[in-house]
Specification:
Elements lengths: L1 H16 L13 E7 L2 E7 L10 E6 L6 E7 L5 E5 L7 E6 L8 E2 L3 E2 L2
Antiparallel strand pairs: 1-2, 2-5, 3-4, 3-6, 6-7, 6-8
Length: 115
């Protein structure tokens, strides 16, 4: 009986010491890469988790006073690449976002300003 209680205590202690990220509720960061090659913005998603980079929605925005304007969306392909064709506006600033999906965190690219 004492051996069984000791074994249960050790098991409970091991479970308590498990890192929180090892559970099913773990979330993974994503990075949105953006660049401009006229007439489209394009980029790639990066993550340590492959499911966070493929078939993921990417939204392109233009910064403006008030709510930013959504210009278009795309889904990343099997190579994690995406692109959105738009008409550029001189002096405007643009960025891309990948909304959270499942256990993949939301991400935002750097802001590119057209000179």
């Amino acid at each position: 009986m004492a051996a069984r209680c000791a074994a249960l205590f050790v098991l409970a202690l091991l479970v308590a010491l498990l890192p929180a990220g090892s559970a099913a509720g773990a979330s993974y960061s994503t990075k949105v890469i953006i660049s401009l090659k006229t007439p489209a913005f394009h980029g790639k998603l990066k993550s340590s988790r492959g499911t966070c980079t493929t078939n993921r929605t990417v939204k392109l925005f233009r910064e403006k006073p008030g709510p930013d304007r959504l210009l278009g969306t795309d889904r990343s392909n099997a190579k994690a690449k995406w692109s959105v064709r738009i008409r550029l506006k001189s002096g405007a600033s643009y960025y891309a976002k990948a909304p959270a999906k499942g256990n993949c965190k939301a991400a935002k690219s750097i802001v590119l300003t057209i000179g």
